[in-house]
From TrEMBL:
Residue ranges of every copy of the AMP-dependent synthetase/ligase domain listed in the record: 89-474
Family: Belongs to the ATP-dependent AMP-binding enzyme family.
Molecular functions (GO terms): acetate-CoA ligase activity; ATP binding
InterPro entries referenced in this protein's UniProt entry, alphabetically: ACAS_N, AMP-bd_C, AMP-bd_C_sf, AMP-binding_CS, AMP-dep_synth/lig_dom, ANL_N_sf
Name under which the protein is recorded: acetate--CoA ligase
Native species: Meiothermus taiwanensis
Assigned keywords, A-Z: Acetylation, ATP-binding, Ligase, Nucleotide-binding
GO biological process: acetyl-CoA biosynthetic process
Domain AMP-binding enzyme C-terminal positions: 528-606
Length: 641
């Protein structure tokens, strides 16, 4: 691995959540804290919850019960709480402190203090009860990032129901798949939203999705535009919610009672509904936000995300539980000009900015001048998640956006984790593109083919002990959950990522296990090929896959999106292949370099390599509902011919 480029300082360690936890536990170093967190897990979680200020309606009598095995842990046994109460309890002591800022793509802005947010959530909770929603009922949230999105999620949890966040860009059939599986009774949606200056008719898709879902009884519609007539079975948010009382009781929930079903796309078959509970995901989100990102009260987090990706609920629940301010943004990141994100940060004094590597790669070619036009002095932390980095965009993010002074908190876990397995702490140096720690409380290891922990060797990323936030299985599919994570080694969660940890305790993820290539007997992450390819000045983006070869076993095929000033040609194909070969060696030379206009991605900008591989090989591509650009799949099929 490379050398560190960022180092700890008093500005980041003094007054931090980690410093407070070290003092509370009487420990003298971050390394001692991490060891304590896995060796004395129960004491660690009790101390963490105490310092986060988590409040229980009924105290728990046991931190952890693993009598049903590590696959089915029970946390905080006997305890009762409500995540909405803990997200809004700052209204009791800091009712005028800013809780939520929203900006629409056209420039509209809304602000809610903690007191105002609690009142708005109470009104929505009363409205849900009036619509007949009861404890345990499922409610679909088919919404863009609006204030009502956060309000709805908290209100559903407040009354003990279960929300189902659905990506606002889904076609009706994809949304209906999730509503049907969850058997949702109500869908909260909007009449539309702005995207690149145009109105998106979300209500049309919500209506069609509801029509395909027999369990759905009503639509509750946020009138973003207000000029769309509602049909029978549809009620307007402003009419149903805004006249309700501004206080409501918090339903006491057992620690393991579910509050959210969030669906992830499977390689094959139907999407998986991961089940999350009141004393899990919200605690994990707040803990990660405290121990990795060090978000403090009075600071503002903005993560460019959608509610259908776990980072949406993560940002809402984690930020509010800690007592920070959350910025939500509705529109495109580069509209009406490439400076929109940086303008948002300047305008709302953002301290914590989270972007995916793919989004950084898309912003980087637009030029540094868009960054320099804006005062980003409020920024204290940069964050990233979703996929492995390439070096050039990582360094651009660090140097051009962070001015070489801000740490990039790289973060990797998943929907089923409820947060991160690996991350960065400002108490250790940070190396480019990697992770300087496993998240406190996560007993992570890299395992070889026999299940033995290894260093400086690529292996399976695994978690050896339970944690709060671990999914409570897949909705109505416990066998599928066990097959997905618990089949490889006995009583060990195998995450599906290839990873490596060096002698200094710094980690790197090579890619998904099913993405990773094995060329000439060596495991190679697709990111290594892609990082090498983008060193060529003509390459905008690249994606690498491995395909079977009768002699070599497996060879690499590289799909390349060119910059606008380059044209596909055999000479350019050869030049890109040579660039990769110089970086990786002759044994790892790509078998083919193919030019495509785009790579298949999710709305959150994650490149879907499994889809690329299936399309190239003429195999069924699995669930494509999360793709923003399904036309890219056909282009790959054509390139393979």
């Amino acid at each position: 691995m490379s050398n560190p480029i960022w180092f700890p300082s008093d500005a980041y360690t003094r007054g931090s959540h980690i410093e407070a936890l070290l003092k509370h536990l009487g420990l003298d170093s971050y390394e001692a804290l991490y060891r304590f967190s896995i060796e004395q897990s129960e004491a660690f979680w009790e101390a963490t919850l105490q310092l986060l200020g988590l409040e229980w309606l009924t105290p728990y009598r046991q931190v952890l019960d693993t009598s049903q095995g590590p696959q089915w842990p029970r946390w905080f046994v006997g305890g009762q709480l409500n995540l909405a109460y803990n997200a809004l309890h700052h209204a009791r002591t800091r009712k005028d402190a800013p809780a939520l800022i929203w900006e629409g793509e056209e420039g509209a802005v809304a602000r809610l203090s903690y007191g105002e947010l609690e009142a708005a959530v109470a009104q929505a909770a009363q409205a849900l009860r009036a619509l007949g929603i009861e404890r345990g009922d499922r409610v679909g949230l088919f919404l863009p990032m609006l204030p009502e999105t956060a309000i709805s999620a908290l209100a559903v949890a407040q009354i003990g129901a279960i929300f189902v966040p659905i990506f606002s860009g889904y076609a009706p059939e994809a949304a209906a798949t999730r509503l049907q599986d969850a058997e949702a009774r109500l869908v909260i949606t909007a009449d539309g939203f702005y995207r690149r200056g145009s109105r998106v008719d979300l209500l049309h898709n919500a209506r069609r999705a509801a029509a395909l879902s027999p369990s759905v009884e009503k639509l509750l519609v946020v009138r973003r535009f207000g000029d769309v007539a509602l049909a029978p079975g549809e009620v307007a948010w402003d009419e149903q919610v805004l006249h309700q009382p501004k206080s409501a009781a918090y339903e006491p929930m057992d620690s393991m009672d579910p509050f959210m079903l969030i669906y992830t796309s499977g390689t094959t078959g139907r999407p998986k509904g991961t089940v999350h509970y009141h004393a899990g995901f919200p605690i994990k989100a707040a803990q990660d936000m405290a121990h990795l990102f060090d978000l403090r009260p009075h600071e503002t987090l903005f993560w460019f995300t959608d509610m259908g990706w776990m980072m949406g609920p993560w940002a809402i629940l984690g930020t509010l539980t800690i007592g920070g301010t959350l910025l939500l943004y509705e529109g495109a990141p580069d509209y009406p000009n490439p400076g929109r994100l940086w303008a948002l940060c300047e305008r709302h004094k953002v301290t914590h900015l989270g972007l995916s590597p793919t989004l950084v790669r898309a912003l980087m070619p637009l030029g540094d001048e868009w960054v320099r036009q804006h005062d980003l002095s409020s920024l204290r932390m940069l964050g990233s998640t979703g996929e492995p980095w390439n070096l050039e965009p990582y360094l651009w993010f660090f140097r051009s956006v962070g001015q070489g002074r801000l740490p990039i908190i790289n973060y990797s876990g998943g929907t089923e984790i409820g947060g991160g397995i690996l991350g960065c702490t400002t108490w250790r140096p940070i190396k480019p593109m990697g992770f300087n720690t496993a998240v406190p409380g996560m007993h992570a290891e890299v395992l070889d083919s026999t299940g033995r922990p290894v260093r400086e060797e690529v292996g399976e990323l695994a978690v050896l002990a339970p944690w709060p936030g671990q999914t409570k299985g897949f909705w109505k599919a416990p066998e599928r959950y066990l097959e997905t994570y618990w089949q490889r080694f006995e009583n060990i969660w195998v995450h599906g990522d290839w990873a490596m940890v060096d002698r200094d305790g710094h980690w790197v993820i090579q890619g998904r296990s099913d993405d990773t290539l094995k060329i000439a007997g060596k495991r190679v992450g697709p990111a290594e090929y892609e990082s090498a390819a983008v060193e060529h000045p003509g390459v905008k983006e690249a994606a690498a896959i491995g395909i079977p070869h009768p002699v070599k076993g497996e060879v690499a095929v590289l799909f390349v999106v060119l910059r606008s000033d380059h044209t596909p040609s055999p000479d350019l194909e050869q030049a890109i292949a040579e660039t990769v070969t110089r970086r990786l060696g002759k044994a790892l030379k790509p078998e083919r370099v193919l030019f495509v206009p785009d790579l298949p991605k999710t709305r959150n900008a994650k490149v879907m390599r499994r889809v690329i591989r299936a399309a190239f090989l003429g195999q069924p591509p699995g669930d494509l509902s999360a793709l923003e650009n399904p036309q890219a799949v056909e282009a790959i099929r054509q390139a393979a011919q």
